[in-house]
Amino acid sequence: MSFWNSARKKLASLLDPPKNTLHNSTICLILSRFKLRIGWIFEQIIGIRTNLPLPSKWEIFWQILVYFVIEDYFNCWIHRWLHTKWGYEKIHHVHHEYGAPIAFAAPYAHWAEILILGTPTFLGPVFVPGHIVTLLLWITLRQIEALETHSGYDFPWNPTKYIPFYGGAEFHDYHHYGGCHSRNNFASVFTYCDYIYGTNKGYRYHKSLLRKRDDWKPHQEDED
Ligand SMILES: [Zn+2]
Ligand SMILES: [Zn+2]
Known about the structure:
Shape: globular
Bound molecules: zinc ion
Helix content: 55-70%
Low-confidence stretches: 7-15
Number of strands: 0
Largest sheet: none
Distance between the termini: 103 Å
Structural class: mainly alpha
Number of helices: 9
Radius of gyration: 25 Å
């Protein structure tokens, strides 16, 4: 018996991983089980594919484009509702604490707003289910877009300048600047919804004033 016990101890000492490794492995195991469950939920209920083959680039492109358009449309209307007296005072005022946003202001919001505005993120995948890789890429791109839109930087070399109807930092900055009185630029990604529903008139007027100022400056310098 003592022979078996000592043999087992020797073997166990060889196989025993360091405590940290064991701890990390346990976390990884729990997370991977959790991920598998999430994958199963998406596969069974929504119809998201989690197996091979991987989606083509074209499939990823058009599905993510559809997800952006669907989310933008619903977010625009939900955001308008959040600017009603009740919606603003109870929920949306937290996000508007940043009159001039920074990237970290993107997720800074009331928990109810995160839930409400987070829902349209999944409407696209529900309406047009694709592959789990597409879903993860979509969520990643949407997060990057939110950080960029709230960054407060409007770089002229930004690749997003080539995306048609893209709002960007300047577009959303104008919305934050208005605070509780803001009635412009409700859409989160594109500009066309606010154009169609006439909720960009103040912004367009502001832009026209800026253009006039820029046109006027050189003449002013000539006279000097
Ligand atoms: Zn707002
Ligand atoms: Zn914002």
